[in-house]
């Protein structure tokens, strides 16, 4: 069992620590992406895309360099995103508990929030990487997109299943509440009909 107050304090601490790091990482990645797409790739095209060492075109080489830099940045961002998702899971688990929260519930929420974060991060990373992947091998971008879509569907389905118990419980409580209100009003309705 996890104490509600400790869970909230830990979640708050993780959010304060990780969100600024994510913002800085995304800003750096955006600047590299911006310079790569708007300056370096067009410059390589203006030079006629010569072959370096007779093996690879200059535009492809620049795309590869920028792609590797972005991958390193997104790996750094990924750890911080996991910390934020754990903190969000802690907030969610604490929001629906009185004093103590079962470890199993916190673990289930963490897995679910991580699944959503994985998909969001993968889609954002793909959008950042797309111009550079297409600059190296255009067909590869399409293949990666198909794989990303299939993977995202499986992860989101699994995430939905992790929340299904909570959703079923909330729906049952709501149905009971509506039914009890309807039964309380039924005698009043009969009285007014007579």
Q: Main traits of this protein?
A:
mainly alpha; 4 strands; two-stranded antiparallel ribbon
Q: Explain this structure to me?
A:
The chain has 194 residues and is mainly alpha-helical. A hairpin with a 3-residue loop joins strand 2 (51-52) and strand 3 (56-57). The protein has helices at 4-46, 58-95, 103-136, 138-193, and strands spanning 2-3, 51-52, 56-57, 100-101. The chain has one domain (2-193). It has four helices and four strands. The strands form two sheets. It has a two-stranded antiparallel ribbon with strand order 1-4.
- In helices, the fraction of residues equals over 70%
Q: Which runs of at least 5 residues are low in confidence (pLDDT < 50)?
A: none
Roughly how many Å is the radius of gyration?
Answer: 25 Å
N- and C-termini, Cα separation: 55 Å
Strands ordered across the widest β-sheet: 1-4
Structural class: mainly alpha
How many helices in DSSP terms?
4
Overall pLDDT metric: 83
Number of strands: 4
Instruction: State which percent range the strand residues make up.
Output: under 5%
What is the H/E string? Answer: EHEEHEHH
Overall number of structural domains: 1
- C-alpha geometry: elongated
Main beta sheet, described? Answer: 2 strands, antiparallel
